[in-house]
Amino acid sequence: MDVYLPIANLAVNGLIIIGLGALTGVLSGLFGVGGGFLTTPLLIFYGVPPTVAAASAASTVTGASVSGVFAHGQRGGVDYQMGGVLVAGGVLGTGIGAVLFSILQRLGQIDTAINLLYVLMLGSIGSLMAKESIETMLAARRGVAPPARKRRHHPLVALLPLRWRFYRSGLYISPLAPLLLGVVGGILTMLLGIGGGFIMVPAMLYILGMSANVVVGTSLFQILFVTIATTLMHALTTHAVDLVLGFLLLVGSVSGAQLGARIGQIASPVTLRLILALIVLAVGLRMALGLTWQPGDIFTVTVL
């Protein structure tokens, strides 16, 4: 079933795109993280231009986040005050990311920059996840319980002025900390088309020291509005959002997420984290090889 993508200027097999969306949806439901960080690389591997892949993946993450926000909000799992600060920072970061995207596009380096950022991010995050999972599994085999983590914000956060009370998160910190964190998330969302949950959730836990029962819901709340801003920014500035591609991905991800959630209920969390880490490292390695492989057809541009 061939489908023409008007913005990507490419004819693709619609079933394969739906399958890619379903795969990322399964990962989202299975591992409890957004699949956006794998959607863009998989689309690039399939032949979709990196700029279109990043812009269209952001719109898919928006649709996938809506149901999650409602579910967590109904059980009181969203800190709307903290989420509002993160959204403000994210929207600001989206504007900064749009400027960086435009500059890199004019320099002709945006595709290389997207690939390089993914290699660095997936490599570092995958390594940390694999290390933590292996240590936990070895400790369980030896019958030693891993030490419980004390919930406390990073020492640098304590140095920031103008403290607020975030009652739902159980914090008394400066709003500048989540604002800056939101800025970083907005820039990454604009450049890479990711929801940012796999970066924001650990940062909210280990840097801000938020309560674990509101982290996921608050992260989804931030992702929802920042990806909306990112999609609008891409539509107005880069014109790289392919609605046909986004719709096909959304169809697959919605159904895949339900399947992943069911599988996740019966699987070991530690084993799942290790599998996810290996998948992330494999995708990062494939992208790194793509930056170094010599292409089959080499073109040279000369000025006459």
UniProtKB/TrEMBL annotation:
Where, per UniProt, does this protein localize? Cell membrane; Membrane
Keyword ATP-binding included in the entry's annotation: no
- Superkingdom is Bacteria
**InterPro entries associated with the record:** TM_pro_TauE-like, TSUP/Inactive_protease-like
Q: Where are the transmembrane segments?
A: 7-31, 43-71, 83-104, 110-130, 171-199, 205-228, 240-260, 266-285
* Keywords of this entry: Cell membrane, Membrane, Transmembrane, Transmembrane helix
**Has keyword Amino-acid biosynthesis?**
no
The annotated topology with respect to the bilayer is: Multi-pass membrane protein
Family of this protein? Belongs to the 4-toluene sulfonate uptake permease (TSUP) (TC 2.A.102) family.
Its protein name is Probable membrane transporter protein
